[in-house]
Design brief:
With about 425 residues, the chain is an alpha/beta fold. Belongs to the glycosyltransferase group 1 family. MshA subfamily.
Length: about 425
C-alpha cells in the first residue's frame, strides 16, 4: 500500500461531537480508522464539508491525519437532503487540492456514505487510484424497516448508491449481513465485498465498576439504570425504550423510586422536525420523573455512563453495525438490542446481552425486567459482554482495511489490463 489515502466524509466531520445532528458512529469510525492507519505510516487526508466560516481550512486531528474543510454551499442550515446539490462544488475543491500536489499524491480513495462515494468515484477516475467505499447505511435497507414517523429515503439516493456500488473497486461491509444486502439488493459482485468489523477503543471503554461510575455521575448506587445513547430520531427507536419503561411502571409501580432512564444524545435527521417529541412522549406516558435528558458527551464520558448502567438499550430499526452496543459491552454492561442488521453480530443473545425480535413495548419491557429483577443475570451477561467486545478492535480494523486497499488496487489493475 502507498503512503497517502484520501478519506472522504462529505456530510459529517470526524471532528464533530457524536450523538447530535448527523454525527454518530460513522464519525467515530472515520477518525479512529484514520488514526490507526497513520500509526501504520499511512498519511490520511479527510475531506469534509465546512459548516462554519470560522473553521480553519486544514486541522491536524492526529499525527499523520489532516482534516480538510471544503467550502461547498452555505456553511449552515443545509440539510443532508440538500447536499446532493453541492456534490459538484465539493468534488471540484477536492480535485483542486490534489492538483496543487506532486503527481500521484494519493494512492487510494476511501469514501464513507453514498454522497462521499459519488465524489470518490470521480476522484478515482481522475487520479487513477482505487476506490474503496463504506456504505454505513443503505436506503433500500432503511426503507424496508421504517420507524413510525420516519421519512422514506428518496429514489435519488437509491440510484446514487447503485452508481457508487458499480464504481467502487472494493466495498467494505461492517458485517456478513451487510455484505449479503450489498449483493442481494444492490447487485454487488461477491468478490468485490470485504467484511471488516469496526472496532472499539478498549482503552476508553473498559470495565470500571458500576458503583464508581454511579458516584461520578451522581446516580444512586441501588438504581435500575436503563440507558439510551445516540442520536434522537425515529430510526434509533428511543421511543421504544420510553414506552417499555411505561409498561414496566404500569406492571410494577414500586419500581419508580429506583428507576433512572438517561437519554444521552441530541435530535437528528427527521427528529429535528420535532426536537421535543421524546420529552413530550415522556410527559404523555407519565414517566418524565424517571427520564433524564443528557446532551451529547465525549467518548470518555460516554464510557462512564455505559459503566453506570444496568443495561444499555439499542432499539434501532436498522443498524449496519451498532457501535454504541460494542462500546457498552466493552464497558462491562449488557445490551438489550433489536434483532436487526449488524446488532445480531454485535450482541450475542443470552451471552453478552439480549436480542428482542420486535419493537413492541411489552416485549421490550419483558427483556428489560429480566435485568432489573436479576442482578446475577446482569453480572453474567456483563462478563460475557467484556469478553465479546474484545473481538472488536480498531487495530484489527486498520490492518484489515490496509489489506482491502491492496486488494482494491489489484482489482483495478486487472480491470485496466482487460
Amino acid at each position: 500500500m502507498g503512503e497517502r489515502v484520501a478519506m472522504i466524509s462529505l456530510h459529517t466531520s470526524p471532528l464533530d461531537q457524536p450523538g447530535t445532528g448527523d454525527a454518530g458512529g460513522m464519525n467515530v469510525y472515520v477518525i479512529e480508522l484514520s488514526r490507526r492507519l497513520a500509526a501504520h505510516g499511512i498519511a490520511v487526508d479527510v475531506f469534509t464539508r465546512a459548516t462554519s466560516s470560522a473553521l480553519p481550512q486544514v486541522v491536524e486531528a492526529a499525527d499523520g491525519v489532516l482534516v480538510r474543510h471544503v467550502a461547498a454551499g452555505p456553511f449552515e442550515g443545509l440539510t443532508k437532503g440538500e447536499l446532493p446539490g453541492q456534490l459538484c462544488t465539493f468534488a471540484r475543491e477536492v480535485l483542486r487540492t490534489e492538483a496543487l500536489q506532486p503527481l500521484g499524491h494519493y494512492d487510494a480513495v476511501h469514501s464513507h456514505y453514498w454522497l462521499s462515494g459519488q465524489v470518490g468515484a470521480l476522484a478515482r477516475d481522475r487520479w487513477n487510484v482505487p476506490l474503496v467505499h463504506s456504505m454505513h447505511t443503505m436506503a433500500k435497507v432503511k426503507n424496508e424497516a421504517l420507524a413510525v414517523g420516519d421519512t422514506p429515503e428518496p429514489l435519488s439516493r437509491v440510484i446514487g448508491e447503485e452508481q457508487v456500488v458499480e464504481a467502487a473497486d472494493l466495498l467494505v461491509a461492517n458485517t456478513d449481513a451487510e455484505a449479503r444486502q450489498l449483493v442481494d439488493l444492490y447487485g454487488a459482485s461477491p468478490d468485490a465485498v470485504e467484511v471488516i468489523h469496526p472496532g472499539v477503543d478498549l482503552s476508553v471503554f473498559a470495565p470500571r465498576g458500576r458503583a464508581e461510575a454511579r458516584r461520578a455521575l451522581g446516580l444512586p448506587e441501588d438504581a435500575a439504570v436503563l440507558l439510551f445513547a445516540g442520536r434522537i430520531q425515529p430510526l434509533k427507536g428511543p421511543d421504544v425504550l420510553l414506552r417499555a419503561v411505561g409498561v414496566l411502571l404500569e406492571q410494577d409501580p414500586g419500581l419508580r423510586h429506583r428507576l433512572v432512564v438517561p437519554v444521552v444524545g441530541g435530535p437528528s435527521g427527521s427528529g429535528l422536525k420535532h426536537p421535543t417529541a421524546l420529552a413530550d412522549l415522556a410527559d404523555e406516558l407519565g414517566i418524565a420523573d424517571v427520564v433524564r435528558f443528557v446532551p451529547p458527551v465525549s467518548q470518555g464520558e460516554l464510557a462512564v455512563w455505559a459503566s453506570a448502567a444496568t443495561a444499555v438499550a439499542v432499539p434501532s430499526y436498522n443498524e449496519s453495525f451498532g457501535l454504541v452496543a460494542v462500546e457498552a459491552q466493552a464497558a462491562g454492561t449488557p445490551v438489550v438490542a433489536a434483532a436487526v442488521g449488524g446488532l445480531t453480530t454485535v450482541v450475542r443473545d443470552e451471552v453478552s446481552g439480549l436480542l428482542v425480535d420486535t419493537h413492541e413495548p411489552r416485549d421490550w419491557a419483558s427483556a428489560l425486567r429480566r435485568l432489573v429483577d436479576d442482578p446475577a443475570l446482569v453480572e453474567r451477561l456483563g462478563r460475557g459482554a467484556v469478553a465479546h467486545a474484545q473481538e472488536f478492535s480498531w487495530e484489527r480494523t486498520a490492518q484489515r482495511t490496509l489489506q482491502a486497499y491492496e486488494r482494491a488496487a489489484g482489482r483495478m489493475r486487472v480491470e485496466l489490463a482487460s
